[in-house]
Amino acid sequence: MTEPLRVLLADDQTLVRTGFRLILGADGIDVVAEATNGTEAVEAVRRTRPDVVLMDVRMPEMDGLEATRRILTGAPGEPRVIILTTFDLDRYVYAALSAGASGFLLKDVTPEHLTAAVRTVRTGDALLAPAITRRLVQRFAQRGSDTAALHRDLALLTPRELEVLGLLARGLSNAELATRLHLAEATVKTHVARILAKLGLRDRVQAVIVAYETGLISAGAREAAQQPTEQA
User: Integer distance in angstroms from the first to the last C-alpha of the chain?
Assistant: First the structure.
């Protein structure tokens, strides 16, 4: 029997936590702890070891961004973090994604979307589509900014992996990548997995961020990426 999914709610608004707890509970998802600020969230994660954390950005004492950084330290068994925000293009959301969050949700999310999102990230998938992430990155990923940059050495990647990363960062799905590169979808999945492993990335969201922050993707490169490639 599969163990129930365990969630921690971190939000300084009681009504938000109550509403989310009722929605999750009705779908068989256990809320194992609640926190009203980032400090409480970090401590509660260590104490209860949830699968997923729903993390508000703006909280007193310690904000959700710093709490996310502290929770996602690379230790085994760390939870997935979903950022809660009232803005779909909040610069704090971009910084949280760079810090390792698996996606974000607006606080007016529907009950169905909320439960589906929690289950999605629990399986290891990123929550938001690469195209949405790309929009965030294009707006906020500027050199010299004070956001949490993902510095990675792309020299670790093969030419084919660089090509896959560039197309992935433009929002192509695995099926679209397979069509564009004349590869089997299983082969594309292998390339993506190797890219994440070589660069030490959590998911496709972080891969998109790396592609922009390293300069792999730029306005001038847009046309070249549209050309099909024949070599495997």
Answer: 42
